[in-house]
């Protein structure tokens, strides 16, 4: 059964990290947050993912999103592995621009439902899957995605998703398939045409459909 659902308050856990002990809500402050777990330090897919996350960390910063990673290894391992990650980026002199949580007792992995039963360590204990949680400034969970250990994530997609979450938190719109910032958006179904006309001064266009139902309403936000 899923533990944490969209709209739930994200747990205010305490944990050791590469920047010291944190209380998660204090770490977030009034920012958005993204917590991404990975199976294990010193593994190839994870290294490419964290290197990518580091390369585009300014894009998360621009959007006011604090980044934090997690795996079931120690702070000491995380610090050592971070150097490999930055060397992979040909930036060996720079620090990894976000902290990594040390969940070596797997407490958070269990609490947040992050274990991958198909990926076991040498003792037969499950490793963490590739979870993504996006947390809003109200500390509520806005998005969760779960990938198995064998499939690396696309961090550009995570930025796209954050753009959608931040836009739809402000305006009564929804973003269609493959939406990118600047594209038209959809007026949400619960808004009447009269309300939509008031809310969207750029106008609303409705696509004619065989059903005659006028639910495909576009606007430029
Ligand atoms: C990896 O990061 O390369 C990896 C970790 C666990 C299972 C499979 C791949």
UniProtKB/TrEMBL annotation:
Catalytic residues, chain numbering: 46 (cysteine sulfenic acid (-soh) intermediate)
Protein name: Peroxiredoxin-6
Function: Thiol-specific peroxidase that catalyzes the reduction of hydrogen peroxide and organic hydroperoxides to water and alcohols, respectively.
GO BP, sorted A to Z: cell redox homeostasis
Any Gene Ontology CC annotation: cytosol
Ranges in a coiled coil: none
This protein's UniProt keywords: Antioxidant, Multifunctional enzyme, Oxidoreductase, Peroxidase, Redox-active center
UniProt keyword Oxidoreductase present: yes
Origin: domain of life: Eukaryota
UniProt lineage: Eukaryota, Metazoa, Chordata, Craniata, Vertebrata
UniProt domain Thioredoxin: residue ranges: 4-167
Entry annotated with the keyword Oxidoreductase: yes
Annotated GO MF terms: 1-acylglycerophosphocholine O-acyltransferase activity; peroxiredoxin activity; phospholipase A2 activity
InterPro entries xrefs: AhpC/TSA, Peroxiredoxin_AhpC-typ, Peroxiredoxin_C, PRX_1cys, Thioredoxin-like_sf, Thioredoxin_domain
Enzyme Commission no: 1.11.1.27, 2.3.1.23, 3.1.1.4
Catalysis performed (reactions): a 1-acyl-sn-glycero-3-phosphocholine + an acyl-CoA = a 1,2-diacyl-sn-glycero-3-phosphocholine + CoA; a 1,2-diacyl-sn-glycero-3-phosphocholine + H2O = a 1-acyl-sn-glycero-3-phosphocholine + a fatty acid + H(+); a hydroperoxide + 2 glutathione = an alcohol + glutathione disulfide + H2O; 1-hexadecanoyl-sn-glycero-3-phosphocholine + hexadecanoyl-CoA = 1,2-dihexadecanoyl-sn-glycero-3-phosphocholine + CoA
Record family assignment: Belongs to the peroxiredoxin family. Prx6 subfamily.
Source species: Cynoglossus semilaevis (Tongue sole)
């Amino acid at each position: 059964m899923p533990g944490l659902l969209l709209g739930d308050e994200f747990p205010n856990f305490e944990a050791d990290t590469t920047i010291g002990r944190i209380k998660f809500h204090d770490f977030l402050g009034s920012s958005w947050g993204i917590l991404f777990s990975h199976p294990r330090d010193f593994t190839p897919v994870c290294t490419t993912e964290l290197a990518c996350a580091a390369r585009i960390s300014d894009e998360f910063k621009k959007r006011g999103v604090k980044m934090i990673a997690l795996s079931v290894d120690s702070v000491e391992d995380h610090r050592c592995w971070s150097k490999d990650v930055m060397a992979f980026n040909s930036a060996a002199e720079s620090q990894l621009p976000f902290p990594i949580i040390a969940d070596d007792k797997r407490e958070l992995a269990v609490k947040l439902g992050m274990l991958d039963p198909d990926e076991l360590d040498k003792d037969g204990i499950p490793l963490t899957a590739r979870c993504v949680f996006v947390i809003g400034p109200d500390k509520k969970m806005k998005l969760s995605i779960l990938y198995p250990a064998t499939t690396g994530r696309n961090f550009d997609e995570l930025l796209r998703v954050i753009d959608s979450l931040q836009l739809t938190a402000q305006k009564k719109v929804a973003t269609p398939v493959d939406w990118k910032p600047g594209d038209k958006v959809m007026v949400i179904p619960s808004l009447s045409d009269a309300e939509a006309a008031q809310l969207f001064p750029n106008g609303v266009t409705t696509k004619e459909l065989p059903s005659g139902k006028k639910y495909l309403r576009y606007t430029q936000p």
